[in-house]
Design brief:
- By secondary structure, the chain is an alpha+beta fold.
- Among the domains are: 197-250 and 267-306 and 531-618, Elongation Factor Tu (Ef-tu), domain 3, CATH 2.40.30.10; 311-523, P-loop containing nucleotide triphosphate hydrolases (Rossmann fold), CATH 3.40.50.300; 626-736, Elongation Factor Tu (Ef-tu), domain 3 (Beta Barrel), CATH 2.40.30.
- It is 32% helix and 21% strand.
- The chain contains 24 helices and 22 strands.
- The chain has a 6-stranded mixed sheet, with helices on both faces. A 6-stranded antiparallel beta barrel has the order 7-8-14-11-10-15.
- Helix 4 crosses helix 5 (52-61).
- Mean pLDDT is 72; it is low at 2-30 and 85-281.
- One of its GO terms (molecular function) is GTPase activity.
- InterPro entries: GTP-eEF1A_C (IPR054696), P-loop_NTPase (IPR027417), T_Tr_GTP-bd_dom (IPR000795), TRAFAC_GTPase_members (IPR050100), Transl_B-barrel_sf (IPR009000), Transl_elong_EF1A/Init_IF2_C (IPR009001).
- Belongs to the TRAFAC class translation factor GTPase superfamily. Classic translation factor GTPase family. EF-Tu/EF-1A subfamily.
- It is found in: Cytoplasm.
- Keywords: Cytoplasm, GTP-binding, Nucleotide-binding.
């Protein structure tokens, strides 16, 4: 996932501790526009100390006008010379030979650098080592380390890995963290669980907030008795429309309709079985009782504050070229998250590449390949605020080749915005388009509330009849996909011109539309309650280089639980405990984070290779189960061939994917969730069935009734989504017996 949050969103305080060498290592090259070199050649004789970076800044201020930049530089230089009158001897003008020598020494080369700063440092160390055999062993070790790093760099280059992605490469870490982790004290935690059900009610004044906190605290079990029976969760998952937690609430979607008879009554036993080896080898607690109380007080105080805005994770989905990145980039610009100077630079660079209409998209699409192709390839994360909400924006790719990345982004979201291209609606809505598949995936992955933004209305002259046709067609499809019609809202927009994003002025629109703008609709998204009173779970969707030396940074969404700086968490698979050094919560430094938060964590870990996309961080005392064989309830979409025993597909859950085999067809279910046929020979399109699935290896999974988001999955084959499902029972132990 394209986060690099510590690099993109660093404050001045962050930059003080950030190693500049890391930036050089990530880039490894320097290149400027031709205008920079033209200006440099014109002014270098008069201003020999000027740098390319200074020239680029001046060009940006003068809209890349070479003549204006030259005049500005020379004029300012003459002014500086005139101020030096005071008896100081003027420097003698050097000869032509001296001039040439000076330029040869000071003028940077225009050719892109091919040798990184790391390579230069390596050569210097080798030279010093050869000249003095009595040097310290420390220097020898650094040379060996750098040799290894450069060999790894060559391997990565051969694999066409882009260094600019800022993705952490385990083989490049040359820091031994074992001494750090050995000195960390053991941390304990009690079994106390709590809920913030009372803190999310709207329109509470200050006195009512205080009373709500006091009542909640009174109901808590403050004692540290680890043998006490834990309180069962009564708060729905953090989605706008809470998924059901008892038999009285009947889900809308067949994929959410779990047959109670399929649920194993001994789920806790199964969970314990799959994690027994982990628990036997570990005697580690996430945090102490006192630390837990301290974190609870911080969370209560924050949520009860009148300045607190509810937080939402919002994914933007839709067919390729629907205008997702352009629309979101324009919103960020209009809301002040991107300054005019940066947009001017993007506009100039996009014009130079012949993609003048893509400058708003470049706010999110920052990789060279994405900009050259004009296609989003990875999920990009940004942040903005509306009057009543704090939004984590997840911009998902629309191209069918990058559907796995779209799934990874959607699993982290609470709500979604579906972009429709009004000018080419039929292409995206057809069988080969991605509009339907994205909508089905969103519903299958737990998205209950949806905004449908009909984009590029300016290209059809804001035609109301065309808009109404698109709205009716999409609405019928979404209702058939089991979206609640009350939770779907439609809005006409133009992402490129900015019309009806934050405000609207075009009379062609205002004469027939008087509804809300897109940002107004985003601001009115429902906010669910946090899943805090369960053991800690976090889905790792990004691993990258930390801004602090010696640490590894991971990003993702906390699905449940409470986390604080200094806590110890378990990496699964891998069964290694790591420590939390820093927390960046919803793009802000924080001492804590809770279920529903989008976070970046700096970790102290002995074996960084264990950290990869798809792993789960969990409570060491109550770790996530590992399973490779389970019973699931699925809903099929369009199958290439009927599903039979032995059917193979790719299994996607949270941020992981794994080859899977349908080992047994248990039963077919009717529209009410009852069994219509046992042991069927095959399963066809648009059917609900119970099946047994086996994965290629042990994976981090949960039962749907325990952790809804970690118990959902999709099945894909040949680049298409063929089914979605819910895990109802682990059967690894039964098969062994």
């Amino acid at each position: 996932m394209s986060r690099h949050r510590f690099l993109k969103n660093m404050t001045d305080d962050d930059l003080e501790d950030f190693d500049e060498q890391d930036l050089q290592d990530d880039d490894g090259s320097a290149d400027f526009d031709d205008e920079v070199y033209d200006v440099y050649d014109a002014v270098v004789d008069d201003t020999p100390d000027i740098t390319y970076e200074e020239i680029e800044e001046i060009l940006i201020d003068h809209d890349y006008s070479v003549d204006d930049a030259i005049d500005f530089i020379l004029e300012n230089y003459e002014n500086k010379k005139s101020k030096k009158k005071g008896g100081k001897q003027q420097p003698q003008k050097p000869s032509n030979n001296n001039n040439n020598k000076q330029q040869a020494n000071k003028q940077p080369t225009k050719v892109r650098r091919t040798r990184s700063a790391r390579s230069t440092k390596k050569e210097k160390l080798l030279e010093n080592n050869n000249s003095n055999n009595n040097d310290n062993n420390t220097e020898d070790e650094e040379v060996d380390s750098l040799n290894k790093e450069n060999n790894d760099d060559n391997i990565n280059n051969n694999k066409n890995i882009n260094k600019k992605n800022n993705i952490y490469k385990p083989s490049l870490l040359a820091v031994d963290l074992s001494t750090i982790t050995k000195n960390l004290s053991k941390i304990n935690i009690d079994d106390k669980e709590f809920s913030f059900q009372s803190l999310y009610k709207n329109n509470l004044d200050n006195d009512e907030n205080v009373n709500a906190i006091n009542n909640t605290l009174k109901t808590m079990s403050i004692g540290g008795n680890s043998k006490a029976k834990p309180v069962e969760s009564k708060t729905p998952y953090n989605t706008p429309i809470g998924t059901p937690i008892n038999d009285k609430n009947i889900p809308n979607s067949p994929v959410d309709r779990v047959d109670p008879n399929l649920i194993n009554n001994n789920n806790n036993n199964n969970t314990t079985t799959t994690t027994t080896t982990v628990n036997k080898n570990l005697n580690v607690k996430q945090h102490t009782i006192n630390r837990n109380k301290e974190l609870e007080e911080m969370v209560h105080k924050s949520f009860a504050s009148s300045d607190n805005k509810p937080h939402l994770n919002m994914v933007v989905i839709g067919h390729v070229d629907a205008g997702k990145s352009t629309t979101m980039g324009h919103i960020l610009f209009k809301l002040g998250n991107v300054d005019k100077r940066t947009m001017s630079k993007f506009e100039h660079e996009s014009n130079r590449m012949g993609k003048s209409s893509f400058h708003f998209a470049w706010v999110l699409d920052e990789h060279d390949e994405e900009r050259e192709r004009g296609v989003t390839m990875d999920v990009c994360v940004r942040y903005f605020e509306t009057p009543h909400r704090k939004i984590t924006l997840l911009d998902a790719p629309g191209h069918r080749d990058f559907i796995p990345n779209m799934i990874s982004g959607t699993t982290q979201a609470d709500v979604a915005v579906l972009l429709i291209n009004a000018n080419e609606f039929e292409a995206g809505f057809s069988g080969e388009g991605q509009t339907k598949e994205h909508a089905l995936l969103a519903k299958s992955l737990g998205i209950m509330e949806l905004i449908v933004a009909v984009n590029k209305m300016d290209m059809i002259e804001w035609n109301k009849e065309r808009y109404d046709y698109i709205v009716d067609t999409i609405k019928n499809f979404l209702v058939s996909a089991k979206f609640n019609e009350k939770n779907i809202r439609f809005v006409p927009i133009s992402g490129y011109t900015g019309e009806n994003l934050v405000d609207r002025k075009d009379p062609r629109l205002t004469k027939w539309y008087n509804g809300s703008t897109l940002v107004d609709y985003i601001d009115s998204f429902s906010v669910g309650e946090r899943l805090i009173n369960k053991p800690f779970r976090m889905n790792v969707s990004d691993v990258y280089k930390s801004s602090t030396k010696g640490y590894v940074s991971v990003g993702g969404k906390i699905e449940a639980g409470l986390l604080g700086v200094g806590d110890k968490v378990l990496i699964s698979p891998g069964s290694e405990v790591c420590s939390i050094k820093h927390i960046r919560r919803n793009n802000n430094e924080s001492e804590w984070a809770v279920g529903g938060d989008n976070v970046d964590l700096s970790l102290v870990v002995e074996n960084p290779a264990l950290l990869r996309v798809g792993v789960i961080l969990s409570d060491p005392e109550k770790p996530i189960p590992l399973s490779k064989r389970f019973i699931a309830q699925i809903v099929t979409f369009t199958l290439p061939i009927p599903m039979t025993n032995g059917y193979q597909a790719v299994f996607h859950a949270h941020s992981m994917e794994e080859p899977a085999t349908i080992t047994r067809l248990v039963s077919l279910l009717d529209s009410n969730g009852g069994v219509s046929k046992k042991n069927p020979r095959c399963v066809s399109d648009t059917c609900t069935a119970v099946v047994e699935i086996q994965l290629g290896r042990l994976s981090c999974l949960e039962l749907y009734n325990d952790y809804r988001q970690l118990g959902r999955f999709t099945l894909r084959e040949s680049g298409k989504t063929i089914a979605a499902g819910l895990i109802t029972e682990f059967i690894d132990k039964k098969k062994k017996e």
